[in-house]
From TrEMBL:
Compositional bias (Gly residues): 53-71
Designated name of the protein: GNAT family N-acetyltransferase
Keywords, ordered alphabetically: Acyltransferase, Transferase
Gene3D superfamilies: 3.40.630.30, SCP2 sterol-binding domain
Positions annotated to bind acetyl-CoA: V108, S109, V110, R116, R117, G118, I119, L120, R121, S144, E145
Region of interest: Disordered: 50-74
Source species of the chain: Pseudonocardia petroleophila
Amino acid sequence: MTVSLHRATADDLPAMATVDGRAFGIDYSDQDLTDLRLILDPDRFVLARDSGTTGGGTTGGGATRGGATRGGGDHAAEGEIVGVAGSFPFAITPPGGAPIAAEGVTWVSVAATHRRRGILRAMLGDLHAGYAAAGTPLAVLTASEGGIYGRFGYGVATTGRNVEIDRSRAVLRADAPDPGGVRFASTAEVRERVPDIHRRWCAGQPGALSRPSPWWDFALLDRPHQRRGGTSRFHLLHADGYVGYRLDSGVCRVVDFFAVTDEARIALWRVLLAMDLVTTVATGAVADDDPLRWLLTDARAVRTTRVGDDVWARVLDTPAVLAARRYAVDVDAVLEVRDPDGYAAGRFRLRGGPDGAECLPTDDAADLALDVPALGAIAFGGTRVHTLARAGRVSAADPAVARRLDAACTAEREPYAGTHF
Ligand SMILES: CC(C)(COP(=O)(O)OP(=O)(O)OC[C@H]1O[C@@H](n2cnc3c(N)ncnc32)[C@H](O)[C@@H]1OP(=O)(O)O)[C@@H](O)C(=O)NCCC(=O)NCCS
């Protein structure tokens, strides 16, 4: 075994970027690395190093299906970096509850020369153990491929949707509200005012991911390569909402859209749909249940071009996650959670309702059994218990209890993350 795991240091970033760039097809410039240091905390990253390599991407060969062992003396670590994984510190909003801490797993890659030897498994094992030891109840990620993360306990918690709005057909109904209050703002004003609007939006939006303060500095750098052929970012500001967008050959590409109130949302939509010379408004930045269609005379003006998994959640602490949310109706059920890695496993009595919830270990007989990815899928109201039961992912001793849990877990709004990472 020549592969071992080490905590990253600030000096490792260029080599980490090389591994990430090879996996995802990115050329990181020196400026990119400087920018990334704003948001990337090396302490949150684990590296797999192969001390059997001599540099230049040799095939190593020492690592086996056993993956990698934890190495000591991180600062003196040697060997080529052959695997990278880490996280951003987020919080995520459960339905009706206050945001809970969640590590946002990111920058996951293993060198093509070292694939399928258990290095990803070892790195995630190391990260999850660290999160659990720190008392973080949840890990989340967005997945490059759908087949990787279920085995590590992740389930699809929120859905992403891309839409294209044909401006020539997008006529607002005569009785649609016209609250106004939107104006253009400078980047400096956005930096000052929008983080608070975003915080307020997160508080009421299930599945919303918080943005650590440096995230705003990073996003608003607006480097040319972030523009993907479009203009720099324009800003529409409302006291309770924000839209960031770019123009690109007649297409308005919305990159950020959040509104604390429906008035702000409608006011922002009105301005987006009022731009002369724009043929299409395109965005992936709206929730599945955005009311736009219902504001238009022709709902078909809004065309969905993609629907798919967005944020995946891996529950590490079942009582913390289930007690953090509110439930649409009162529920009292005993859940048996299966988790091969142990973190979320156990039998728990969940008592919850619209005003609060508690979830405690119990020896009582289970009403329902489910695996940990299924728990991640229902935790934010994104997937119905009933749907998972039909797939055999939730089994219920008493169908009436399953129906009750199904009704209880449904959230008032579709969970939606609003931040891609
Ligand atoms: C995905 C990736 C990180 C996997 O790394 P790896 O070290 O080869 O993975 P491991 O050997 O630890 O595999 C662990 C398990 O996941 C499975 N697995 C790994 N990659 C998979 C994939 N792309 N699709 C389906 N299953 C996969 C393995 O078969 C293995 O399954 P098992 O242990 O249940 O039998 C690596 O292939 C890679 O860097 N890909 C390109 C970048 C990428 O997609 N990163 C993910 C970003 S979200």
